[in-house]
Design goal:
This protein has a domain of 70 residues. Helix content is 52%, strand content 0%. It contains 5 helices and no strands. It is elongated, with a radius of gyration of 23 Å. Keywords: Membrane, Transmembrane, Transmembrane helix.
């Protein structure tokens, strides 16, 4: 008996979604694992319309799982367009610049704070949206 692909994909999706805090992905992954393992035998032994509807539902779950994993994988890395250069086409009414240890624009030094990240983000000075 070999390793079945669908439950493995469901497990990967539920784990990746849990890590990302995506509740829908967790539910789809868990449902896919349950559908392809625990419910597989009772469904295959059922008759007619139930078996047909179950096949469609299983196909939809598998499609959702594969699609979600694909999107999660594709968007996991940084946007390669901005790795070596700062984007120049950003419309912002007050302008913007990159502030970084290296490669910052306009010679602006990296700010340091005597507060925690949570305190800075909670202040009115933080505009990052968090």
């Amino acid at each position: 008996m070999g390793l079945e692909v669908v439950p493995v994909l469901g497990g990967l999706e539920s784990a990746a979604a849990l890590f990302a805090g995506h509740g829908v992905g967790v539910m789809v992954g868990v449902a896919t694992v349950l559908w392809s393992t625990v419910l597989k035998t009772p469904i295959s032994e059922s008759s007619g319309a139930i078996k047909s509807a179950a096949g469609v539902a299983g196909s939809v779950l598998t499609f959702l799982t594969v699609t979600m994993l694909g999107v999660r994988t594709y968007t996991a890395g940084p946007d390669t367009r901005y790795i070596d250069s700062f984007p120049t086409g950003i419309a912002h009414p007050e302008g913007c610049t990159r502030v970084a240890e290296t490669g910052g624009n306009k010679g602006i030094a990296v700010p340091t704070f005597k507060a925690s990240v949570d305190e800075v983000q909670a202040s009115k000075l933080y505009y990052g949206g968090g």
